[in-house]
Write a structure and sequence with these properties.
Layout lengths: L20 H20 L3 E2 L5 E3 H4 L15 E3 L5 E4 L4 H10 L8 E10 L11 E10 L5 H16 L7 E7 H10 L5 H12 L1 H13 L2 E3 L9 E3 L5 H11 L9 H19 L7 E3 L13 E12 L5 E12 L5 H4 L5 E7 H11 L11 E3 L6 H16 L4 E3 L7 H11 L3 E4 L2 H6 L1 E6 H8 L5 H6 L4 E5 L3 H20 L1
Parallel strand pairs: 1-5, 7-10, 14-15, 14-16
Antiparallel strand pairs: 2-4, 3-4, 5-6, 6-13, 7-11, 8-9, 11-12, 12-13, 16-17, 17-18
Keywords: Aminoacyl-tRNA synthetase, ATP-binding, Cytoplasm, Ligase, Nucleotide-binding, Protein biosynthesis
EC number: 6.1.1.21
InterPro entries: aa-tRNA-synth_II, aa-tRNA-synth_II/BPL/LPL, Anticodon-bd, Anticodon-bd_dom_sf, His-tRNA-ligase, HisRS-like_core, HisRS/HisZ, HisRS_anticodon
Length: 493
């Protein structure tokens, strides 16, 4: 799209975001902590491409009203359809099936990467976001599911989330299927509506869920107020069976499907308790419903319980920051034989936001670079400036040599101020002749300059600036940076 001047208008696609340095570093820090836990549990990394053949991904997203049913797709030059992955699990299933004879089962793996959803964007709802998954393929017993729940609890604590501020909630799709049998629901669309109603328990409470199980619910609470969400159309008796179930009363549910799921949940509960994870950390919760349709057994969610300020400073409950479950049929789509699998996915961006707002992430910020200023543009001088810059870098200190128009020195200090540079290195012709260099503490200088009242005082003062021999440059800069760090830490206490 061009504007009236014929220039292409710079614009970000809807539902996508640009990421900046602080966010990237915070996410890297968080992923490093998650990776450490996954590695400790014996999981190894693997990476799959962002594109897969569309039929390999399968159609598990419910967005029938969107192009390509919720995925971004294109046709290759061989007329085969490719799609951007919408999660990291379906590509893993393809990878396992394609390399089945070379992979050692159980296959324990983790991976992080971006996924893409062709959904209508909205506040906090993006079309590209990062996930960090761990999966075990080839383990049929629910011990693998219990281990996933324990590992997610350990991840929460490795990220600095205190016990009591998170919980891993566990349910079972077999239990939910047993509920569907009991109320006579076999239609997939109606089943999905019932599951979505159950999933709204935290948001709307039992009365709101009851409305969604019946005719439907008005957003405003009364007929005609706000938008209307059509319900599942259950009878009052069947709706009550569902409500009793999510309240923990499953006395009327005795079909074999339900009992099989309940037995698996009991085993998971026993394994977690035996390993020292109490119900405050991992708990059975009949209201847990995972959205993707490929889950076949236990399902679980990691939920933040702490009240956390959002980007606007409003105190909110972040809720779920990850989830997963057993998907025994996903690899089998390619193999034609049962291949059990279970896994967990962390919503990286959402969790990172919560951690930053809790003050648990981004505290170890990377300092802006020391600025080596340019006073003269001749070959000898430039060589010296580059030498200083490399000496600092080789000593492990972030540093850059000014690359703009060096003839206006004031612009260099303005640039350093905008960058937040802690120190400036200055060498003019006189200093170079004497083998010296000036070091300016920009943090202390900024503080002291606020006390200077006249231009004359400013000209006479060399605020927080001192001279050292060239070979003492690195040690002198280290000392200034150490003093600045001590002052920051003292102010934070």
């Amino acid at each position: 799209m061009a504007n009236k001047a014929g220039k292409t208008r710079a614009r970000l696609p809807r539902g996508f975001v640009d990421r900046h340095a602080d966010d990237i570093r915070a996410v890297d820090e968080m992923c490093a902590r998650i990776r450490e836990v996954y590695e400790r549990y014996g999981f190894d990394p693997v990476e799959t491409p962002i594109f897969e053949y569309t039929d390999a991904l399968g159609k598990f997203l419910p967005d029938q009203d969107r192009p390509n049913e919720g995925v971004f797709s294109l046709q290759d030059d061989d007329e085969q359809w490719l799609s951007l992955r919408y999660d990291l699990t379906a590509p893993l299933a393809r990878h396992v099936a394609e390399n089945f004879n070379e992979i050692q089962l159980p296959y324990r793996t983790y991976r992080a990467g971006y996924v893409f959803r062709n959904e209508k964007p909205g506040p906090g709802r993006f079309r590209q976001f990062m996930q960090f998954d761990a999966d075990t393929v080839g383990a049929p017993g629910v011990a693998a599911d219990a281990e996933m729940c324990m590992m997610m609890a350990d991840v929460m604590e490795a990220l600095g989330i205190a016990r009591g501020d998170y919980v891993i909630r566990v349910n079972n799709r077999k239990v939910l299927d047993g509920v569907m049998e009991a109320i006579g629901v076999s239609d997939d669309a109606q089943k999905l509506t019932v599951l979505r109603a159950i999933d709204k328990l935290d948001k709307f409470g039992p009365e709101g869920v009851k409305l969604l199980l019946g005719a439907g619910r008005w957003d405003g609470g009364k007929e005609g107020e706000g938008d209307f969400t059509k319900g599942a159309g259950l009878s009052e008796a069947n709706a009550q069976i569902v409500l009793d179930y999510i309240a923990g009363d499953a006395g009327s549910l005795d079909n074999e499907t339900f009992k099989a799921g309940a037995s698996e949940l009991s085993e998971i509960d026993n394994l977690c308790r035996a390993a020292g994870y109490d119900t405050a950390r991992i708990k059975i919760d009949p209201s847990v419903v995972r959205g993707l349709e490929y889950y076949t057994g236990p399902v679980f969610e990691a939920e933040l319980l702490a009240e956390i300020p959002n980007e606007k400073g409003e105190i909110v409950r972040f809720g779920s920051v990850g989830g997963g479950g057993r998907y025994d049929g996903l690899v089998s789509r390619f193999r034609g034989q049962p291949v059990p699998a279970t896994g967990f996915s962390i919503g990286v961006s959402r969790l990172a936001t919560a951690l930053k707002n809790l003050g648990k992430l981004g505290r170890d910020t990377v300092l802006p670079p020391v600025l080596v200023t340019v006073m003269d543009g001749d070959t000898e001088a430039m060589a010296k400036y580059q030498q200083f810059t490399q000496a600092l870098r080789q000593a492990g200190i972030r540093a850059e040599m000014y690359q703009g128009n060096w003839k206006k020195f004031g612009n260099q200090l303005k640039y350093a101020d905008r960058r937040g540079s802690p120190v400036a290195i200055i060498q003019g012709a006189d200093e170079r002749a004497n083998g010296e260099v000036q070091i300016k503490d920009l943090i202390e200088g900024k503080r002291l300059s606020e006390e200077i009242e006249s231009n004359e005082e400013w000209r006479e003062a060399r605020v927080a600036q001192f001279t050292v021999k060239e070979d003492a440059l690195v040690d002198a800069v280290r000392k200034v940076l150490a003093e600045q760090k001590a002052e920051r830490e003292g102010a934070a206490q």
